[in-house]
Specification:
The complex is a heterotetramer of chains A (373), B (177), C (101) and D (736). Chain A has 373 residues and is an all-alpha fold. Chain A is 66% helix and 1% strand. Chain A has one domain. Chain A has a two-stranded antiparallel ribbon. Chain B folds into three domains: 89 residues, NADH-ubiquinone/plastoquinone oxidoreductase chain 6, subunit NuoJ (Four Helix Bundle (Hemerythrin (Met), subunit A), Up-down Bundle); 31 residues; 41 residues. In chain B, helix 1 runs antiparallel to helix 2 and helix 2 packs antiparallel against helix 3. Chain B is globular, with a radius of gyration of 21 Å. By secondary structure, chain C is mainly α. Chain C has a single domain, classed as Helix Hairpins, CATH 1.10.287. In chain C, helix 1 runs antiparallel to helix 2 and helix 2 runs antiparallel to helix 3. The chains are: A mainly alpha (373), B mainly alpha (177), C mainly alpha (101), D mainly alpha (736). Chains in contact: A-B, B-C, B-D, C-D. At the B-C interface, helix 1, helix 2, helix 3, helix 4 and helix 5 of B face helix 1, helix 2 and helix 3 of C.
Chain lengths: 373, 177, 101, 736
Amino acid sequence: MNQTVVSYLSQYEFYDIILEAFGNNEGLLAFVIYSLFAVIIVALCATIGGLGTYAERKISADIQQRLGPNRVGPYGILQFLADGVKMMTKEDVMPFTADKMLFYLAPCLALVGVFATLAVLPWSSGFIMADMNVGIFYLIAISSLVGVSVFLGGYASNSKWSMLGGMRGASQIISYEIPVTISILAIVLLAGGMSFGAIVGHQKGLPTNWFIFHNPFAFVAFFVYFIGALAETNRAPFDLPEAESELVSGYHTEYTGMRFGFFALAEYIEVFVVCGVAAALFLGGSNLPFDISFDILPIQLVEVVIFMTKTLLLYYVVIWIRWTFPRLRVDQLMSICWKYLTPIAIVNLCGCAIWLVVFNGRSFAQIVFGGHH
Amino acid sequence: MFAQLLFAMSALLTVGGAIAVVVTKNIMHSCIFLLACLIGVAGLYATLGADFVAVTQIMVYVGGIVILMLFAVMLTGGKDFVSRAQNLLGLAPSMGNKWTFSIAILVSIVFLLTNISLIGNIVRSHAPKTFGNDYPSTVSQIGHLLVKDHVLAFELSSVLLLGALVGAAIIARPRKQ
Amino acid sequence: MMGLASYLLISLILFVAGLVVMIARKNIVAILLGIELILNASALNFVAYSRYVTNNLDGHIFSLFIIVVAAAEAAVGLAIVIRFFQIKETVHVDEATQLRN
Amino acid sequence: MEYTVGSIAPIFLAPVLAFIINAFFGRKLPRQGDWLATLSIFISFIFSARIFSDFVFGKFATDFYVHKTFTWFDLSHASAVWKVDMGIYLDNMAAIMLLMVSGIAFLIHLFSTWYMDHDEKHGRFFVFLPLFTSAMLGMVLSDNLFSLFIFWEIMGFCSYSLIGIYNKKEKAGDASLKAFMTTRVGDVFLLLGIVALWMVLGSVTYVDIYAAIAEGKFAGQTVMGISFATFTALCIFLGAMGKSAQFPLHVWLPDAMMGPTPGSALIHAATMVTAGVWVTLRMYPLMVLGDITWFIAVIGAITAFGAATIATVQTDIKAVLAYSTLSQLGYMIMGVGVGSYNAAFMHVITHAVFKACLFLSAGSIIHTVHEQEMPKLGGLRKYMPYTHFAMMACTLAIAGIPFFSGFVSKDRILGDALYFGFMAGQNPMLAIVPILGFAGAGLTAFYMFRMMFLTFYGENRMHHDSHGHGHGHKDAHGHESHGHEIHQEHLDVRQNVPLLLLSIFTLGFWFAGTLTGQSFGKVFGKKVEWFKVLVEAPRVEQFVGHNRQPWGSVDSRDKTELPHAHYHHQSGYAGPNPDDHKIHKAHTIGAIASIIIAFSGVFLAFLMYIQHTVKPWADTFSGITTTLQNKYYFDKFYIDVLIKKGLLGLNRGLAWFDMGVYDRFAVDGWAAVNRVLFTASRWFDNVVIDAIGVDGTGVAVNLFNLVLRIVQSGKIQFYFIMLIMVLVSYIWTLKF
């Protein structure tokens, strides 16, 4: 049975009290709880996305030995709010020859695709909107909406730069989905399930139980996944669709105001999501160390903090990479995907399968230090 | 309640998308409406308890086929080219005209009537059957079925996909003039 | 509201929409869109029957294979379309007359 | 007693592994992997020895057997059974045979490491040698004719490769081709027999065939007018004749000595040639049922005598040995034919031992003095004492001197032949079998001692003979043999120890005594040999409804579970023979006669070649000698008559028929008939076809096209509409 946040909360006593207040209408209560959580998560992620722009500017400034934004609020931390207000109040310009419907649709699709993935992101063992049986598969599938949106954005603008950016973006996202998916499949193989609950639950205890340390193939798979995820989110060094030195600003060249904001927000949240997935799949997710399990509500908050810490560390790495590495050429991009990452990912998948059979499912640490599985 | 809601929305999306595909004049918009329609079908799969099929539907169609079609539309000149061809040769316009649509609708009505008479029988004979409201996970069962009962079809489909991949690459590759 | 009949009706509408697209449209890509609609209608039927009639997962398997076939068909079909466009500079289906006479 | 596959399979698999490693990586190994081949054979020898000790010292009943099968492939569907089983079948006979093959093969391998040292074909030789041995071992282990045939063909290939291993010499190539083609004639018949058995019984497993014989399934079946049992038995025996080089198909064996001598030893002693005898023994009940034992006996007798006569005039030491092999094989086949099952098998074993030793001794001589023409040898006794000792022991054995192994087995065959020819009430013409047999025995003693005397005794003819003649004989290594100093032989582990070990086993008591303590079949006052107790013709009744053991099972049957077989003399397999005293009498006469004949042969050789008091008959009867030296003109006959006259003549006749009769009458006549027909048909064509048919059809088609043109619009969507409409109309037709 699929576990949800509602089914998690229903084990506490206060749930019954609230249920009575709703006149024992479980459906209505579930609807309210879902809505509440959805609002909280979307708001949280929007904030994280906003803060992402701030972090990007601050970290880049740090790397380049500048100060960065420092006027609005303490250390300039409210800069993103000021930017948001600026975007919302800007004039909404649409090119005369643009395809009106698709021009409106594209930023919305981007945001829908990203927000839909939040439904399965495992914030903690309890706070997960819906722990679906096909969780990770669903996440991969629904996030491909972003690819469509990039393409449509490029097409609908009816501009050379946008068109080229959109085409590049779509082909890049489709291509890099393959090594990413195969790397994730290796982890699915190790966990024996596609639900995030099962995958995270498998990595309880010490960091030696994390899937990244499970076997050498999984270790390589993490890097394949991470590189592929960078490309899927159009982050440097794979930011060809929005390469400012070649295509002005790529697929969102013609977008202004909050429409541009949607694209930007979607990109930053997607980076957060792929980092979260990396943390959940490879780095133990929201598990407390040493397998401490008090089943009380505050512990869930601690787990959320752990998950956020891991994710944000990866987020930092992503930004770090952006300001360190130069951009690739288009042919290099494709050859990396098809000639290197995909074969390596396939070898990893086969290697994991063989490892499972040969060592009877035991991890590297279990083989070395002993222990049962 | 959620299932009912999901069903209503998905059905609306599916039917609306399908009809929009029919009536839209712009091939690019048609593709997008097809996308909506396919996502609706995925929702319908979800209401039928077919979680794996639903996600596969989204994965393959949204991530693959629709983008492929958008590419194809783009590589074949997009919507603009269509009207030019029509003016030049005096053929029926690419997205159809009154004549083609009236023929198509005529055929469809005949087909619709035929099928409704069939469906009526089926629904009358199977109506009372319901199998509860639970949605057990199908992933592991489908996995077992694929590598046990349907393993031949599974392997053949892999060969088919490989053939399609190679064939598509060979057919569409750029040729030296 | 939810029942076999409603699913069959929806799939019928899908099928008929695909039929109309296939017959009325002259753009080859559009005809491929129609084929996708028809394939989806049949796959939906399979899954609906699987839940309401047979109560096993064979319908699911069938619809999975339909999706696979649809993917292969789209890949090859679109490749042919692109090649056709390179030769004839049009995608009008009535222009494909090289085998006539 | 526990038998699993793991305790049996290494016998066969170890040499195969050595073959694979040597074939692919042999060049990279030290000494080109000869130690690996030898080691692998030693492993099979260890496993065989274990089985041998279990079966022989474990005092199993004669009818105890281990039969493990697995399904190779199963294409059965519903009631149609089409299943091929493979498996192993082990009984006393197979246990003895395994020990013999692996032991002798091991010693030959050991000897070969010395003999082939620094030879250019050293590596290649040790690729084929273990494969050859493994094929023989696999053939002994196999439980059905089908896998037997597979190993049979592997052996054929290996013998081809070993005979022609010096592939730069034209003669070697010719000899290998000859061996291959000649045995192929037999193999075709063997395959025919197997297919025929399969067609009727649906199985070619031995036990199934035995059970079928016991149940009388062969009764009433005929093929081309002759009884089915006779047909299959004849086919299988013809296959065995090819492999065991019996009378009409014997021509390949003497030429097979073109290969290296240890290879010849393996072909002539342990493997290959005994395969034919083996299949005849395994299929003995079928031979009896098919009533061809007299044929087998006659073929064997002819081969035994004919080969012995040729051997008396050969000058090449290896040729003498080759013809003696032919002769001894004739005795084995004759033994099977006259119903002396046990003695025939015993002769296989004893012959394998002394013949391997003889060939290895010959190899030792050739490798030391680089000369194999006997008139140029002589007096080697003091140079090669160990070789001389071993070869003398073997010669005593093969000549049938009492207290040696050859006497034990050959005497029993001859005794049974005597009974078969004179006392069993058979066709009086069959008296030729014992007569030829005894004559051959005498000749054997004569030519073997002739060889010994010419080689080891007298004065050494090498030094003063070598420069006189201009024909400059070349030895196997291609350089001139003149001027070699003969080195004094020292005891070499690889050169002499195999010979001496083998020569120990030429003593008779190993085979004749109650060596292994077999006592349960002992009858008071009667000499009982362990060999006689252990091996007897398969009694087909016990196989009716037998159970197969699955491949992976552990066999833990207790030997006491099986009824003890009672020793009774072989006479077919129909229970105790009432003519026991007659047989005893025949054996007594036979023993006395063969001792006399053997000693007279030795004495004659002594007179001719040591004392020189009698002029060698080869010079006296020069006409016969020429015939014999030309091997009764068999090779000439095959090439000149069968191939040149027969085949080419047939071709010429066919060509004449083709040109003269067929072309002139059939083709030209047919042309004339056609010319008339063409005239008629031209008119028909012009008027009926063109005017009415073609033009009329055109008009009709044009009319019809008016309709079709509307349907065949070339518009794909129109076709689609038609498709849908047909579908709809189909549905409506079904509904109402």
